[in-house]
Predict the structure of Histidine ammonia-lyase.
Amino acid sequence: MASPTSVEVGTGPVSFEELVAVARDGAGVHLSSGALTAIEAGRAVVEELAAAPTPAYGVSTGFGALATRHIPAEMRAQLQKSLVRSHAAGSGPEVETEVVRGLMLLRLSTLATGNTGIRPETAELYAAMLTHHITPIVREYGSLGCSGDLAPLAHCALAAMGEGTVRDANGIEMPAAEALEAAGLAPVELGAKEGLALINGTDGMLGQLVLALTDLDRLMKTADIAAAMSVEGQLGTDRVFAAELQALRPHPGQADSAANLTALLADSGVVASHRGPDCNRVQDAYSLRCSPQVHGAARDTFAHCATVAGRELASAVDNPVVLRDGRVESNGNFHGAPVAYVLDFAAIAAADVASISERRTDRFLDKARNHGLPPFLADDPGVDSGLMIAQYTQAAIVSELKRLASPASVDSIPSSAMQEDHVSMGWSSARKLRRSIDGLTRVLAVEVMTAARALQLRAPLEPSPASAAVIALLSAHDVGTPGPDRWLSPEIERAVELVRSGAVLTAAEDTIGALR
């Protein structure tokens, strides 16, 4: 399905596809007429509260532990500017453009509900910044995942004020004011409550969750391809993947993974060569035989994560919030626990999928377990080391993924003079999940590369059509072909890009049809 070139915000929750289109593919954004109507209605409530003598949190008071101070009308514009400036306190490496675009889109989606009390012109500026590819520079550290992703969102709000730094459509760093002027946009002068409305949401962690789940959908299908090639290359059986056996334990992810393995191994000359009565193999090792159980459990985990993400996409996260009956109420919906938990859950599953992939790879390299292949798949063992150290690379990554699987969401450091005394650390969960996905991509790439070399060493036996298509793709990029030792790092990186881009998955699916 082609990615949309423009996304309308305000007709319902942002979908996974829309978020990816804006965050990753650069689609533009515009607000629906219904969103503008809702925004105007919410703003009218805030304006009424701002004019009232009774203090209202976020409208005419300070914030957090300073909420007890009533701010006079003449100082409220300064109040909003001060809020954004002080909260734009991020530090560390620059966050990826797709993450920043994703969090801006999700903040705009909440603004479009009318529940935040933002002005239409402020919401429209966010849409215009996305359309003109003006990306605020956000730093790695600063969010505790409670009161939302305050620091990352504040850096975006700061840019909308014409302050701070951004990257333009060409990726050039420049002052925000210059980028806005070049695009014909005017900085916003924040009114009552607007600064708070722009920074109080789970948008950063949620955007990263959606992007991660999009990547994991592709990677889990690729993991099935890698597993099938490993089963095939190690002379394993496909009978254990039969649907009737999977039905005895009716987990949906397991059934889908097993069905993929069956399809991927269909018409394999390698599998057929040892299917007869002379085969003395009783059972394959767990890493081969149990691939659908592990991959399936991960799939079901990610499905649960997607359910939580869908609920969060349908949410309006702000504090205080403007209700339809005209009330403005404080709440705790900004707490990131629901998102933080599943971000950590996903990292656990990703680590285990990488772990079983590494075990399948290692079996290829051990002469005692690889059923007639040369040690380390080397051309001249002893002179050549083959893929010995490629497995070391896998092992190092898997070890890192196990550390990243330790949940961030179990930690909490009180902040804001103990007013914010329990936080989710969901942003940290999101950041480590991104690293986990990169690691899983690399581990699967090494397995695919290794299995491709092994299957070529099984000649004249013919691999399955799906495996043959993947091998042809890899060979066209000088990946996975047998022969004397060569500089391996560039070959691994090419394999990683073929997995990351989806080329490996496309090669298989173009041959046998869509995988589940």
Summary: The domain at 6-201 is CATH 1.10.275.10 (Fumarase C; Chain B, domain 1).
